[in-house]
Amino acid sequence: MSGFRGWPRRAIEFFEGLEADNSRDYWQAHKPVYDADVRAPMEALVAALEPEYGPAVLFRPYRDVRFSADKTPYKTQVAAVLGDTGDGAYYVQLSADGLMTGAGLHVMTPDQVARLRAAIDDERTGTALEGIVDELAGAGFEVGGEPLRTAPRGYGKDHPRIGLLRYRSCFMLRRHAPGGWLQRAAAADTVRADWSAARPLVGWLREHVGRVAPRER
Fold first, then answer.
1. I need a labelling partner for 70 at 20 to 30 A (CA). Which of 20, 85, 131, 184 fits?
2. Does the predicted TM-score (pTM) go above 0.90?
């Protein structure tokens, strides 16, 4: 596979069209554009990033509509995740809105949430996470975690890190508007820079939250 050279303008146009007409007819008529100008550049990008960030998984373009009221069949983005999704991974997505990067743990099991809160409650490890989050937010990243509306059971509303304690997961996102820069190989440097900034967050999660606890037999 050739190296990553950016996404042609046709990639953004493909998703603009798909948002306007999310139908099998549109998909079939434009699938060659998807294969050549959307998926192939994403494959080239993750191939370049895998040596540093771990194996990649590209998401399928088809939506699972079995339990959804929204029956549109196709996702309006192409995305991939690199690394270990069990204890901290890296995410990249292209859509009509541009490029989005992410990192962290987007979904946690109850035992992971319990370890997350215990580590946040601890003065040393909780303060460390607070510093990481503040630095990311100050650099323009969104940091979230599907927060509860109130304090979790066992923690007071006046806890100095109550905002973090309300998290049920922990991840960062950064959005980049579409433009000519996406058509160049240097777009990969934007992904690398964002993921490099997110390394302390992923490292903290891997150390203090870790993987799902194995089930007892």
1. 85
2. yes
In this structure, what token pair is assigned to residue 71? 């029956």
Kindly report the backbone phi and psi dihedral angles of residue 60, in degrees, each rounded to the nearest multiple of 5, phi listed first: -65, 150
From residue 69, how far is each of 17, 63, 64, 66 by CA, in Å?
22, 12, 11, 9
Calpha distance 73→62 (Å, rounded): 6
- Alpha carbon 155 to its chain's center: 29
Q: What is the CATH architecture assignment of 9-208?
A: 2-Layer Sandwich (3.30)
Tell me the C-alpha distance between 40 and 14, whole Å. 14
**DSSP secondary structure code for residue 211 in this structure:** S
Return the sign of the alpha-carbon dihedral for residues 144, 135, 59, 39: positive
For the stretch 88-121, pLDDT in tens is: 999 999 999 999 999 999 999 999 999 999 999 9
Residue 83 backbone phi and psi in degrees, to 5: 95, -160
Report the C-alpha gap between 217 and 214 in whole angstroms. 9
Consecutive H or E run containing 206: helix 187-208
Residue pLDDT, tens place only, 62-89: 998 888 888 899 999 999 999 988 889 9
What order do you get walking across the sheet with 77-84 strand by strand? Answer: 56-58, 77-84, 88-95, 98-105, 170-176, 142-144
Distance CA 98, CA 91 (A): 14
